[in-house]
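Notes to self after the call with IL:
- keep both proteins in one doc
- input above output, always
- annotate only the second one for now

Protein 1:
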Amino acid sequence: MPVIRSASSSSALQRRLAVILFAVSIIQYFMVNFLRNAVPGSIFNELQIDLACDAGRLANLAAAFTICHAFGQIIVGPLADRYGGCRVIQIGGFLIAFSNLLFCVARTPFMLAASRALCGVSCSCIYLSIVKECDRFFSDRFTQTIGFVVLCGYIGGAVATAPLVACTARWGWRNCFLVLGLFILAISILYAVLARQATPVPVRPTSFPVKTYVKVLTNTRLLRFFLSYPVNYALYYTIQILLGKKFLEEGGGMSSDAAAICLGILIVYSAVANPVLGMASVWFHNRRRPFYLVMLCAPLVCFSLIIAAILAKGGQPGLVWLFFLAYLCGASISAFSPIAAALGREYNTHEEIGVVTGLINAFAFGATAFFSSLAGIILNRFHDQAVIRADGAVIYPDQAYIITFAIFLAIAVLTFFIGISLPETNGHDISDGRPMRGHLAHFFRLHT
């Protein structure tokens, strides 16, 4: 006889299945962060030696990923709103596995860039969809849950530093990425099998939301937000994926392993700080603005310290502690992801969270692509003054880094003045402006 389940037992089974699916999607987000940070940053010199290419081409490798990742956010946001996060995660997982397997067998810079471009598009499917699922299952604990998700993801970024450097030194970068691609494929198959047992989310019969994008991009609060937090995040992320490890080796005189460990520590710091800041915002009655002001100041301190340290060391390797302190300030920017996700949710209606989150990431990774290409162009301008090691790695002069970080500092000053006037939300939806008037009235009652 067939087993007849009660409605309550079926509901409990679906809840457990939803939690398992959410956990597996977090593993996929772990792998997304690994892939974002690993190439070219952690294997910069290995790629330069293996492919005999200059910094500009490797910067273009980073740009190929981030540009496609940015445009992918614009497409994936509406797809997640229409089809649900679960369906989009399934497609993204298999594409990530395929792109990674293609990357490890590529023999030319063009094929490497093509595989990274596909990886960028497919990786964009995961975080947006997780945000969508988080809003569906954990709406009352959204900020804390996003903080936990980002914590798990950033651990993947940490694994892409010293552990990856050690593995590539032992087995080679191609073999490491082959194993990684097969693992991602196995996780994607597991997620697809579990998803077939879950109750499907109804498909919303909507077309591409052009009006929604127009509405979001004409929201002056969101526009100022897009031009401040994502741009600051991009400034630091360019260090993380392109310049960070190489600069510590050349400017600080660190070994490859030591530089990778430093970057790993920064990512762990960001990972731990994300849920802490998410909970701190809740403890302070869902206040966002004080935390946002700290975020705006972080890149100013970061790049000022880096430039000061370069000038102070006088052309000789050293002052590693000062570079590390500057990097630590920069890493603080990426620790504000829960605050940023909450602000994007509160400056606009919750129904459009996929579009808003997609645009946040699109601005961030689009800016990263621009800054990565800009850094590559500046470094190549000093190629004639660079020192080429016997193994083919290129050591660039301090002047190249001073100009790069000075431009980054000027951009950080601009974002500070753009974002400083953003209003407080106190955890409320202020998309129509009416709740804000209530906050102001309460403020004046308290101070009169």
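Protein 2 (the one to annotate):
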Amino acid sequence: MKLITIINLIVCICATIGFIMGVHAYFKPHQPLYAQMTTIALGCASLGRLYNVAVIACDGSIPHTFNIGILAVVGCFLFFFSANHNQIDSLCDMTNPKNAKFRYIGLIAPAIQAIIAGIVFVASDGKLILRISYMIEFLSVMLASYYNCKHLLIHDIDSGFIDSVRGYILMVLVLGFLYTAEITCDAFEVIIPKSFIYLFMSVCLLMIIPILKKGVKKWTTI
């Protein structure tokens, strides 16, 4: 079995375990919607890796065009974005003028990713359709990363909710940069660093739900 198949399989297993833990913990009545959205995001990540494993096993490599794996990444981070924008942001910001500076500071993470995306689009040798596909992936990651960066630094609200879930927010932000690194390696066909990227990615996907669960429990017992 190829190394690329093994590491994709490991990421798939970790994402699947995270998804199952999320379904068990949060797909019940009266559970927070942002936790359910996070669980669905992990489900998307799991399906994307499963597609990669299946394609590599059958064809020997992942097709260099827009595919289900790319679509899964987009879906994953759009659910992370929705969890942050529609749920967490409505609790901690609500366009409060005191938080204006954090709205600008939050742009740091997507700005870094945008620079990397620009380099990938201009300097990589892939076909135009593939580079556009990478840009779609980058955009979804950037949307989620903005709110993760912002919420990581923003002042807490009276209920203590933000402080309780900062570990989860940090984990999703790190995951976004790991996907950014993976896309960049794919674009430039760099192999060696991907094993380390997949290792840390597996840890993030496996730990997101336990860290979120701990944060939610801490908040509800304050």
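Annotation: The mean pLDDT is 89. The two ends are 49 Å apart (CA to CA).
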